[in-house]
Amino acid sequence: MSKSQIAYHWIKARIDDGTFSPGYRLVFGQIAQELGVSTVPVREAVRRLEAEGLVTYEHNIGAQVAMADESDYQHTMQTLALVEGYAAALAAPSLPGKALDEAKGLNAELTACLDNFEPSRFTALNRDFHRVLCGTCPNPQVLDLVNRGWNRLAGLRTSTFSFVPGRAHESVREHQNILDLFDRNAPAGEIELAVREHRLTTLETFLAWRHP
């Protein structure tokens, strides 16, 4: 492969796996140094990624990883808020203590991430947290809808935490509130509402950032 092809595949792989999250600034010099090439093939690779819609270029800002389609993200989050809240409420009565302990451990990891924040890692741990709480949902169709929502978010390559890192602090506090509800065997309606509002607050934070 040519140097520009190598640079293209290297950058694209990091966009695909979330290392370069939406809004991440692509500094040509840093990438060139990492790959041991000049900035010319990096620039060519970025132009190709821009043509594919994976990268945007703005004057005085430079090249950045493109954001997902806003309306698609909004619709996915709204749907996920409904089905995930219901799935968590259905799962709560049969959730093993071991699974609840795992969720608490994941929230502790999320809290530890706040000091040296990495949006891609936080997003992955956040998904694991929610996956554990919904894991024993007895309705396979509801759980399938939840999984589809999570997979769609991953395909959109977006995370509110990339744009509004402060949301991460609020998120772990809301997780703790949800865990407390599970701990005290709260009514299903309370759990459903807490999980739904948690997801919708993330969406509202993103929209407030996009449209100040």
TrEMBL record:
<dbReference type="GO" id="GO:0043565">
    <property type="term" value="F:sequence-specific DNA binding"/>
</dbReference>
<dbReference type="InterPro" id="IPR000524">
    <property type="entry name" value="Tscrpt_reg_HTH_GntR"/>
</dbReference>
<protein>
    <submittedName>
        <fullName>GntR family transcriptional regulator</fullName>
    </submittedName>
</protein>
<feature type="domain" description="HTH gntR-type">
    <location>
        <begin position="1"/>
        <end position="68"/>
    </location>
</feature>
<dbReference type="InterPro" id="IPR011711">
    <property type="entry name" value="GntR_C"/>
</dbReference>
<keyword id="KW-0804">Transcription</keyword>
<dbReference type="Pfam" id="PF07729">
    <property type="entry name" value="FCD"/>
</dbReference>
<dbReference type="Pfam" id="PF00392">
    <property type="entry name" value="GntR"/>
</dbReference>
<keyword id="KW-0238">DNA-binding</keyword>
<dbReference type="InterPro" id="IPR008920">
    <property type="entry name" value="TF_FadR/GntR_C"/>
</dbReference>
<dbReference type="GO" id="GO:0003700">
    <property type="term" value="F:DNA-binding transcription factor activity"/>
</dbReference>
<keyword id="KW-0805">Transcription regulation</keyword>
<dbReference type="InterPro" id="IPR000485">
    <property type="entry name" value="AsnC-type_HTH_dom"/>
</dbReference>
<dbReference type="InterPro" id="IPR036390">
    <property type="entry name" value="WH_DNA-bd_sf"/>
</dbReference>
<dbReference type="InterPro" id="IPR036388">
    <property type="entry name" value="WH-like_DNA-bd_sf"/>
</dbReference>
